[in-house]
Every structure is written in C-alpha cells, then in structure tokens.
Amino acid sequence: MRLLVLGTGVMAKNQLRHFAHMDGVEVVGAVDTDRDRLKLFADEFGIEKRFLTLDDAIAWGDFDAATNVTPDRIHHPTTMALIAAGKHVLCEKPLAENYPKALEMTEAAETAGVVNMVNLTYRNVAPLQRAREMVLAGELGTIKHVEASYLQSWLVSRAWGDWRTESTWLWRLSTGHGSTGVLGDVGIHILDFAAYGAATDIDHVFARLKTFNKVPGGQIGEYLLDANDSFTMSLDFANGALGVVHASRWATGHLNELKLRIYGERGSLEVSHRPSGSDLRGCLGENVESATWREIEAAPVSTNYQRFADAVMSGLQPDPNFRHAANLQKVIDLAMITERERRELKV
C-alpha cells in the first residue's frame, strides 16, 4: 500500500509511528498548507514527495490510499476529493461536522467502492474487544443496563498544556473556532466504546450539556469560551438495555480515562482504559452471588492502522467504517437538539 498523509500535525506523527514499521506499507507523500511544518514532518519520516495542496497530490496520483489527519472542518471536502480520485481513506474522527455531511461521505465511498475507515482509536483496546466477544457469546445473558464515562481534567490541570495560553486547547473551548465542545470532541469515542462493547446500536437519546464559566467575561483574546465542557446522556439501546453516558473536562484526578460497565442478567463486565494501561474485570457465574469481581485476560488485537492497511491490500472493507461513524454523528447531532428542546429523540 502506497500511503499519502494529509495533514502533518501531532496525530499524523502518532499514526506514522505505526505505519512506518508495517510490512507492505510505503509512505510516499505528505500534504500540508504550512510549508515549514510540512518540511519538518517529511524530513523526520523520510518522505520525498511533499505537497502544499491536496489538488497537487491528487494530480500526481501515485498513491493507493490516504490517511486524513486534517482539522475536523476539513474532513468533508478533502475526503470527498480523495474518494472522487478513487483513493482508499482512513479518516480521523469525527467523520464530519454533522450527520448530513458524514452521510454524503459515506454514500460517496460506498458508491465508489473504496475502503473507508474512521480512526476510532479505542477499538485498539484489547479488553474492549474481549468484552464484546463475551457479550456476543451470551456469557452475560440479556444486557439490561450500560454505563460509560470519558473523564479528562485538562481544565483543572496543566498535564497536557495550559488552555489559558495555548491555541491548541483554546480552540476546543470556542464554537466560533470550530469546536462542538466535549460532546463533539470525545462524544463519538465514548458512544462507540459503549455501543461496541455492549454489541448493540443506539435507539433513543436525551442529553444535557453544560458550559461552565472559566474566566471573567468568558473570553480570552479572540476566543469566546462558549463550547460545552460536560455532558450527560440517557440512551435506549436497540437490544432493550438502558444506558447512561457522560463526559467532562473537569474530572479532577483523571487525565484521560474511559470506563464501561455492562450489566446482564447472568453477569457483568467492567472495561477501564487510561494512559497507564487497560483492564477487564468480570462478575460471572457463581461469583454473582457473592458480588466477587475477577480480572479477565485479553489477548492483543490489531490496531486500526494495521487493519486499514490489511483492508486496502485485501480489498475487504474493515470496521469501523464511514457508515458507522455517520450513525454516531447522527446521535451527537440529535443530542444537541435534545438539549435545546428538552425532549428525547429517536435515532
């Protein structure tokens, strides 16, 4: 697979640390509108072909697939151009700013017959994959209740940087700079974590969003700090289970932690993922009577990057695909409407 990298920021560097060491993968070109950033990136990874526009890269055309690591607003036009050129695409999350655009990208990719995949990175968590296997095997019986949380603390900690002075973080707090808040930023991750782990789709949604005052006047320079910082969400799942999902950037003591609890009539599972590692616990069988939880081993799994490369080389469509990400974007869009209208909506 001859791969083009579109966008050369921090996430692109993280991806290249995976792609650069894969058998059968050759990174042949990079694109960025910032000439200096492009040069530093391409020099670091030994990439010969460098383009300041995607149009120039497509005109060159000597690549099979692209990984789209551009800002959220740029995903739609750039991915549509790549699909029109017949290129396979791995796109960062969210697929698009809203469901209509995400659906347009999905239908275009499916019509063109190109491999399409969204980088929902927590699919790489082995305990999540093991939990799903157990649910599908019926080890928990009928699923009744699901809890999921995504907790960050960068509004109360400088562990990742200082949001008061760094544009990398400030834009995420401002709708005028393209942010849809914590819901748009990590909502797709925790919704996928919950629905994938519990092996079901989301059927109904009702959400509450909250923006807390962070500085006097609610503004720093050109950044109006009006994007949501926390959300809570009540869900009905297609399998009949009830769900509660929440996320916050004010979760003191949690740098970046995802947790999923799945409760079934015959047992329960808990998946935890944090920067230091991941684990899976279960309360199953005779342990249900004593409420005893035990660690469950989870075998390593392939990363999204490896599965995308394998899919391009085999021609077999992988998961999570564009349609899945579009459906999650629909849930997020409806969640924002439920906040405004204070009513539950069917997905």
From TrEMBL:
The keyword Oxidoreductase applies. The lineage of its organism: Bacteria, Pseudomonadati, Pseudomonadota, Alphaproteobacteria, Hyphomicrobiales. This is Oxidoreductase protein. Residues 2-119 form the Gfo/Idh/MocA-like oxidoreductase N-terminal domain. The keyword Signal does not apply. It holds the Pfam family GFO_IDH_MocA. Residues 129-270 form the GFO/IDH/MocA-like oxidoreductase domain. One of its GO terms (molecular function) is oxidoreductase activity. It comes from the Bacteria. Gene3D superfamilies: Dihydrodipicolinate Reductase, domain 2 (3.30.360.10), NAD(P)-binding Rossmann-like Domain (3.40.50.720). It comes from Rhizobium gallicum bv. gallicum R602sp. SUPFAM superfamilies: Glyceraldehyde-3-phosphate dehydrogenase-like, C-terminal domain, NAD(P)-binding Rossmann-fold domains. Coiled coil: none annotated. Keywords: Oxidoreductase.
